[in-house]
Specification:
465 residues; mainly beta; four-stranded antiparallel β-sheet; 4 helices; globular
Amino acid sequence: MGLWKPDPSFYPSPKMAMQAPPERHAYVAALNYGRNDKPDAICVVDLDQDSDTYGSVIGKTELPHVGDELHHFGWNACSSALCPFAPHPHLERRYLVVPGIRSSRLYIIDTQPDPTNPKISKVIEPEELMAKSGYSRPHTVHCGPDAIYVSAMGSADGEDGPGGIFLLDHFSFEVKGPWEIDRGDQQLAYDFWWHLAEDVLISSEWAKPHQFENGLVPEDLLANKYGHRLHFWDLRKRKLAQTIDLGAEHQMALELRPAHDPRKSYGFAGVVISTEDLSASIWLWYQKEGQWQADKVITIPAVPAEPDALPPALQPFSAVPPLVSDIDLSLDDRFLYVSCWGTGELLQYDVSDPFNPKLAGKVAIGGIVNKTPHPKSGGPLLGGPQMVEISRDGKRVYFTNSLYSTWDDQFYPDKMGGWMVKVDADPQGGMALDPEFFVDFGETRVHQIRLQGGDSSTDSFCYPS
């Protein structure tokens, strides 16, 4: 008799996932919004170091519409399919769920049978998405045990809040509806993650659509009107249980990275900027006496700069803010990587003791003032470390340089192009740019990376290492 076997890229625990074969391909969101009349695309980059085409684009799936603005995307299924309370072991990590944050259109892209030539298998048009979900501006995609979860930045009317989360069916990709039953006073949305063993979902805050689509609104920033709270939800009851305000000056609480080991109930949140001193910060959330708490554990200061070297938005401050726009945590929960998009640095922290992170490594590339080149770039680079992705074994770190089209143009007004680089990470700490890996996408900008077979920000695990 035939037997169903789980997808070989699913692993019960983080430790087992770290022993997986090395990734061979990366899927990269490539966007053209505001540059030309071309559609966005999903590009396939060769990561096989034994290949003749290593470090180059070997496949490209162009989308049928112009102006989607691809941002974040994710897999339809991952290791959470092995969780005992909602098992779906017969799912495959096969489809990329790709939202257009500007168009509110959602693409389902099939990476099989040829992973270098993905094909669009389904398109959910914005009218359907908004009518069934109650939301617009889809953003983050996570493969949950019971459904595919997608966060969204705006309400169905497209201009206001609340933002939130909606669900897709694992098999048909139909929009099932909004996730929340009782949202309390939550209005702003951005990232979300969870502690599955605790039945807890955590969400963060960016802004409403009119506060980001046409660029950063300086008056709103200085008035502390961007998001600065973390929300803790009862995952089963779909109900807001607790909110932590990080302080109104800590503007734009964005990326969330929980510990991968399900025995650990803590995680890290990145804050883009403080309106008091332009610093960025990393916060640790954790449980104490049955309540969630959050402490600032890393502060990254702004760097003084001559006004003439700065874009108009920063000239009055005579400084470059780090602008922490992404963070990522290795599968062994040891190293946290922090993208400083403004200063052009990728920082590596040893977070073995999450309450006392220690700087373990740093690479510099790009940056608003320095524009530090790569050995293969042939000259100064615009943009800086932005979306960062870690291989499952923790030895390779990839990142791209574009944040969001209109924000790119505000902070890098010379019209950046797109690039992707790789860092080799020492298992004991420290890292260095791979001098041979530099993918130049020309005027097409690049954002989210997903690694074939999984990466450090894709999977949730229900079994301890």
